[in-house]
Specification:
Radius of gyration: 21 Å
Strand order of the largest sheet: 5-4-3-6-9-11-10
Order of helices and strands: HHHHHEEHEHEHEEEHHEHEHEE
Number of helices: 12
Length: 279
């Protein structure tokens, strides 16, 4: 089968299964199968796939049609221009989380000294490692409760040559011996209510790690635990940055009573996405 025929077949298959952006997905999976870039696909439309390539491509297209995210199939996701290894053990890094990085860098730029930062619930390590990449003088830590996720974060740390980032297995900040020592605590916690699974896409609900998506009955459970812990671990004048979900801004602000300079950063769709608060 020719490359262009295989691509069209995949587009039709993904379209019939209501997969969003079917052409983009089909191209991404074909590039992964052939180990090529998009330019190659369009420069060689009549190139014939080997039987092995055709079988492999059909297999991974079927996986994507079932709802499995393409990032888990190819094992990679770009974040802030960096390439991160991902697996079903970690939440897939998303563009909206880059707003956390933007706010963190703005706060770091306003400081006279290099900040001490901890990313709570680091997952793939995308937040902690990105900040370490952008702030070479900063001391950066990441905490994670999942051993499997920590393994992915460690691999990404080595791939990005950021061995100075310290990774800790702990539940939020519990057990971390650094009370009152951080300038910035940053987190993208789970914030979906277990009572409202329909609020997330099927591929997120069915394939991404439940512990990284669902917080509990209300969706506020992690915020209720993290906010008082962050107060204890921040220096006076330090900042807490958290990603928030749609419609919970008011509830999170309520939990931040006693903090100062509370502000919200919207994402590109105008949805409140980041809450910042100063101790």
């Amino acid at each position: 089968m020719q490359l262009k025929q295989a691509l069209q077949r995949a587009i039709e298959d993904l379209t019939s299964h209501d997969v969003g952006s079917p052409r983009l997905n089909a191209e991404t999976l074909l590039m992964f199968t052939l180990g090529c870039d998009r330019a190659y696909l369009y420069a060689h439309p009549e190139r014939k796939l080997t039987a092995e390539e055709d079988e492999r491509y059909s297999q991974i297209v079927s996986e994507r049609a079932s709802g499995k995210p393409s990032q888990y199939i190819i094992g990679h996701q770009e974040f802030w221009g960096l390439d991160f290894l991902v697996s079903p053990a970690v939440l897939i890094p998303r563009p909206e989380t880059e707003h956390l990085i933007e706010v963190a860098l703005e706060l770091a730029a306003a400081r006279k000294s290099s900040p001490r930062i901890v990313d709570v619930g680091t997952g793939s390590g995308c937040i902690a490692l990105t900040l370490a990449h952008e702030l070479p003088q900063a001391e950066v830590h990441g905490t994670e409760i999942s051993n499997e996720a920590l393994d992915i974060a460690r691999i990404n740390r080595e791939r990005l040559d950021l061995g100075r980032v310290k990774l800790h297995r702990c539940d939020l900040l519990e057990g971390l011996d650094a009370e009152g020592q951080f300038d910035l605590i940053i987190s993208n916690p789970p914030y979906v209510s277990e009572a409202e699974p329909e609020k997330v896409q099927r591929q997120v609900r069915d394939f991404e790690p439940r512990v990284a998506v669902f917080a509990g009955p209300t969706g506020l459970e992690i915020y209720r635990r993290l906010i008082p812990q962050a107060w204890d671990f921040l220096r006076t004048g330090g900042w807490l940055l958290m990603e928030i979900g749609f419609s919970i801004e008011a509830q999170v602000r309520e939990l931040l009573k006693g903090w100062s300079e509370i502000s919200t950063r919207n994402d590109l769709q105008g949805i409140p996405r980041v809450v910042a608060a100063k101790k």
